[in-house]
Specification:
Two copies of one chain form a homodimer.
Chain A: H1 3-11, H2 18-30, H3 35-48, H4 52-63, E1 79-83, H5 91-101, E2 106-110, H6 120-125, H7 136-146, E3 148-152, H8 159-169, H9 177-190, E4 195-202, H10 211-228, E5 231-238, E6 246-247, H11 249-260, H12 266-283, H13 289-301, H14 304-315, E7 334-339, E8 344-349, H15 351-361, E9 377-380, E10 387-388, E11 393-399, H16 405-415, E12 416-419, E13 429-433
Parallel strand pairs in A: 1-4, 2-3, 4-5
Antiparallel strand pairs in A: 5-13, 6-9, 7-11, 8-10, 8-12, 9-11
Helix pairs in contact in A: 1-3, 2-4, 4-9, 4-10, 5-11, 5-12, 5-14, 9-10, 12-13, 15-16
Chain lengths: 434, 434
């Protein structure tokens, strides 16, 4: 077998066999096949695509290229949840305790933030003493005892995906649906998930700007799940404005607590009930989505969801008292307000700009090795559709280091558009793909 | 400027500017841009193509990437001729003296054979003492004195093309019309040609199996010539069977002499008159193609064409007596005949198989560093459309080393198809593109 013939075959629109993909991926990881052949192949895949079987084969080859986390000592169906990345996306912090309180098993590995997108591990680390690096045994014990644990990635997970993604990133071959789908799903599978709920964001603040592309990606991932025996449900959700009000690590923990208490933002609450109901259904803890939402609402109302968060924090050495006293979370002394320059209705809030403003304050990383400030960030005071008078506060910046403050403030102010006409209400959930 | 953005732009079907191509090609030659970005770009070009201006820009950038041969001390319009490669293609040996005898200036750099395709420099070196490595001054003197000289390539011509071609060869990106066209034309331009006559072969023995693709390639090269001020005419010609009867170095020299004497194969003679008339027209030595053919026929009939070959051989230190005594050329003691196994008409002769059989005998190179035997080769006795009786000789193998003889004989025999029905006569010249 030669890499040349495999590139040629894909270039000419033919389907690759599992053996051919195996030769390519394993050869690449071993260093037998050079970057320049893989980048030509990736560009051919960009143009020719891959069918469901090829995509599933590639996914499994990448999943199996490194460590496969064995979560079999955990009782029950391990349901993972993955978001393609947005701004102010606090859902994991809410969903892990919420779904666990309703009977699902959440053994989740999460990542750190990069660019304008935050990461769950950074957010959890703003809880004093919270330990995101548990040993495998302790992780399993925690889940068996509390039904929920969220830790950082350890081990050598999906080295093939890491190497391939780094190459795609510099050869303009990232934007290929089967390559994106297999990259995401390979990590979920290597992480030990039995079932997966996917939140595919679409809109100006999302990786997938176009809803048609978002639907294709969701379909590709659900098809992979089907092919490899991991039940997968995908939601297409809106990311034209930030989710909830808070953007920043400790600020989002606070918002998660408020949401678990039933006092959270409407959109974040709705999305958590939706994604959570799918988790319960896949975990066998609810017969259908409607029943799932009912159970979750009940768990919020009776306080069990918040109790579960407290329990999870304590089990990972964090200070559970933050739930009662937000002053225990990192916070800034200084806040700066952005005011409306005219009256009218908020017609749009560019999520990407808000995320970038938060990075400028220090809430996120520009590069993988950047230091971040867990206290800083942005809290929106208005969302799309809200009425505003001239001089009303649109958003508040929580600031420590003032170096980039002016740039962040300008960017945040520019993220808001105000119009005379009340904008049409956008759907939060566009579609559910199963 | 970033290579990433240039790849992305081409991937998305946009036109690249000269500056962008310059950044890419010069950066690649210098080693600033890695192979894996160039192969991704080449694959994007395979799918998206390039327009006439982009292709011309790329051609000039590759031509200018190394030495540019300055033939300005040579008086007159230097007309080059290029064939995309076939089997038994003896045209350059005929055309250099023939066109020169009729007033054209032929200052030609040629290559060696590789694979099933022969090379003019190998063929000339089968003439005892013939010197294919003249200094630049002597090359120019020879052309000024005799109007014809054919030498091997010297200097660092088109390093960008060499590097890019080697990469395309292992990444399944060879078969792109604009990339093939710019590769060929960059070498002609760096070689100092003022005008170019192209022989684009099509058929089973050619690189371009498909006539539609051959026409596109011809059009792309003529367009480049137009864009960069080198008058270019392209012929689409048949390579479904070998050209002429001889395949092998000394054997083809003998056939060239016979053709210059007016006793050559019909197809080789016709093709030389056609290509030669275009050379005369571009050189200003004939008003039109019809007049060109008349002049060339006259030069063959009155012996001036053959005299010119003699003159050219002597001027490059070769033994001109080979023209009167073919025994002075390398030749084999042993010949082996391939006989017809049934009676009928020759319906096809697979040129690729004939060329491969000749390589097996030692007439060509499997790798760049293979030794070749100038004496060996194949002489066809029948061509497509000829009648044969069972037991008639179809072809003769001229053999020195018998190691691969059986394999060569079998391959050569299998190259012939015999049918009961007389096949339709194929055109030799399909189209002229100007």
């Amino acid at each position: 077998m030669r890499a040349y013939d495999i590139i040629l075959k894909k270039r000419d629109g033919k389907k690759l066999s599992r053996n051919e993909l195996e030769f390519l991926i394993n050869g690449y990881v071993k260093g037998d096949i050079p970057d320049y052949q893989i980048s030509a192949w990736a560009m051919a895949v960009f143009f020719r695509g891959m069918d469901a079987e090829e995509t599933a084969d590639l996914t499994m080859l990448m999943a199996e290229s490194g460590d496969m986390i064995d979560l079999s000592p955990i009782r029950g169906i391990k349901v993972d949840k993955h978001s393609t990345g947005g701004v102010g996306d606090t859902t994991t912090l809410v969903l892990a305790p919420l779904a666990a309180s309703a009977g699902a098993v959440v053994a989740k590995m999460s990542g750190r933030g990069l660019g304008h997108t935050g990461g769950t591990i950074d957010k959890l680390e703003s809880i004093p003493d919270f330990n995101t690096f548990l040993s495998r045994d302790r992780f399993i014990d925690n889940v068996n005892q509390h039904r929920a644990a969220v830790v950082g990635q350890t081990g050598n997970l999906t080295p093939a995906d890491k190497k391939l993604y780094a190459l795609r990133d510099v050869t303009a071959t990232v934007e290929s649906i089967p390559l994106i789908a297999s990259s995401i799903m390979s990590k979920k599978i290597a992480g030990g998930a039995d079932a997966v709920v996917l939140d595919v964001k679409t809109g100006s603040g999302a990786f997938m700007k176009d809803i048609g592309q978002a639907k294709k990606l969701a379909r590709a991932m659900v098809d992979i799940g089907e092919e490899v025996g991991r039940k997968t449900t995908a939601y297409i959700t809106d990311m034209n404005q930030p989710l909830g009000y808070a953007v920043g690590n400790a600020l989002e923990v606070k918002e998660a607590v408020e949401t678990l208490r039933g006092e959270g933002p409407e959109d974040l609450t709705e999305l958590c009930l939706e994604l959570g109901s799918a988790m319960l259904k896949l975990a066998g803890a609810a017969g259908d989505l409607e029943r799932g939402r009912e159970i979750l609402r009940e768990k919020i109302e009776n306080g069990e969801a918040l109790d579960k968060f407290k329990e999870m924090i304590a089990a990972q050495e964090g200070n559970p008292e933050i739930i009662n006293d937000f002053n225990l979370l990192p916070h800034t002394d200084k806040t700066v307000e952005v005011k409306a320059e005219k009256s009218g209705y908020i017609s749009s809030i560019e999520a990407l700009e808000v995320g970038t403003a938060a990075v400028l304050l220090g809430a996120g990383r520009e590069r993988k090795d950047s230091e971040i400030d867990l206290a800083v960030g942005i809290v929106l005071k208005k969302k799309v559709g809200d009425k505003t008078a001239e001089g009303d506060t649109l958003a508040v910046l929580h600031v420590n280091n003032e170096d980039n403050l002016e740039e962040a403030r300008t960017k945040l102010a520019a993220a808001f558009s105000i119009s005379d006409k009340k904008p049409e209400k956008k759907q939060l959930i566009y579609e559910i793909i199963t």
